[in-house]
UniProtKB/TrEMBL annotation:
Keywords on record: Oxidoreductase, Peroxidase
Coiled-coil region list: none
Species per Swiss-Prot/TrEMBL record: Planoprotostelium fungivorum
Protein name: Glutathione peroxidase
A Gene Ontology BP annotation from the UniProt entry: cellular response to oxidative stress
Gene Ontology MF annotations: peroxidase activity
Domain of life of the organism encoding this protein: Eukaryota
Family stated for the protein in its record: Belongs to the glutathione peroxidase family.
Amino acid sequence: MRFIYLSPRYDNAKSPWILSCGGEGFSGSADCHPPKKAPNQHIRRMSTTPSSFYDLSAISNKGKPIPFSDFKGKVVLVVNVASQCGFTKQYAGLEELNKKYRDRGLQMIGFPCNQFGGQEPGSAEEIESFCQVNFGVTFPLTEKVEVNGTNEHPVFHHLKSQKKWFGLSRVKWNFEKFLIDTEGNVAERFSSTSDASAIEPYLLTLLPKAESQKE
């Protein structure tokens, strides 16, 4: 699979590059380049600890607020995403889920993150263009965030505290997924290797309640 980047600022067109992640990889060519690295963006932190998933919010890749109170009664899938990872191909399956179930109460949201191998270096515009050109992504993306450490985004601080991995809370790599039920609780947490086909059965157990709340 070859990914297309619309990045006229990338000035090393003769250099091949490799997409790699956890041993997986895709090779690129002269007409398929990663976005130019963007400067670190300001990380927004909340001054108080949210008591509910619906008290949280994020900033979209266009700089607009996304209040999670808008997600009440929906099933939400939160994913930390990256454009230069071996798991980037999962965008295709995630978008299929989005189109298939959004009218039944699914809300998907992607959080670009550059913490793992520097695999999300582009600007908000470059990331959005990459996702749309290569995968036709229509679900919302946020500004770039951190998911671990001192500057971790409050959304991930909250989600990790609700669902840990073998006693550990940290996100291990790109494309971890958190599935939130209609009450705002983390119902399931999926590793990077879990693609859309692994998530769908769990999603189907939660959607009926979302549909009933729409009636």
